[in-house]
Design goal:
signal; Cupin_2; RmlC_Cupin_sf; 12 strands; Jelly Rolls; two-stranded antiparallel sheet; RmlC-like_jellyroll
């Protein structure tokens, strides 16, 4: 079972890397009014219970498809949009495929995210991620599942917290 999981994760990462490589020859557009270079469809609007601003989520792999081990989805954040603070009971990996944004763990400085950024988030670490004020952000999220849960949602990121990282 571990071998299947590793092979599937490698296949997903390879697909994203190949797609990103193909898109490097095109001029990347940081303006949301231009055509998106996203690999997958935009998806459904994200819940206002979990996100601030305009966010879309495109499910790619449902935990039920692979023995409940993890989920995979593309998340598109329009400028200024972000997640609430949250944790993952078994960790998460973010693969940034387009745009610019931020990842921040509670009590630590924010990390800038750009196309090609990879973030490995340990289990139970309180964090948030989202787009910069001027550009959209698109990432693939691979979330491990534990006890039928992939995420625990917490309070929204307030304006002061967001403004302090996106200057």
């Amino acid at each position: 079972m571990k071998r299947k999981t590793k092979l599937l994760a490698l296949l997903i990462i390879s697909t994203v890397v190949i797609s990103c490589s193909n898109n490097q020859k095109e001029e990347e557009d940081m303006n949301t009014n231009e055509k998106s270079l996203s690999v997958f469809p935009l998806g459904d609007p994200g819940s206002s219970d979990w996100f601030t601003g305009e966010v879309h989520v495109q499910g790619l792999v449902n935990p039920d498809q692979i023995e409940g081990l993890y989920s995979v989805g593309q998340v598109t954040f329009e400028p200024g949009s972000k997640t609430n603070w949250h944790t993952h009971p078994a960790g998460q990996v973010l693969l940034v495929t387009e745009g610019r944004g931020w990842y921040q763990e509670r009590g630590k400085p924010a990390q800038e995210l750009i196309k090609g950024s990879v973030v490995a988030i340990p289990k139970d670490i309180e964090h948030w991620h989202g787009a910069s004020k001027e550009t959209k952000l698109v990432h693939i999220a691979i979330s491990n599942v534990k006890d039928n849960s992939a995420v625990t949602w917490l309070a929204p990121v307030n304006d002061e917290e967001y403004d302090s990282v996106d200057k």
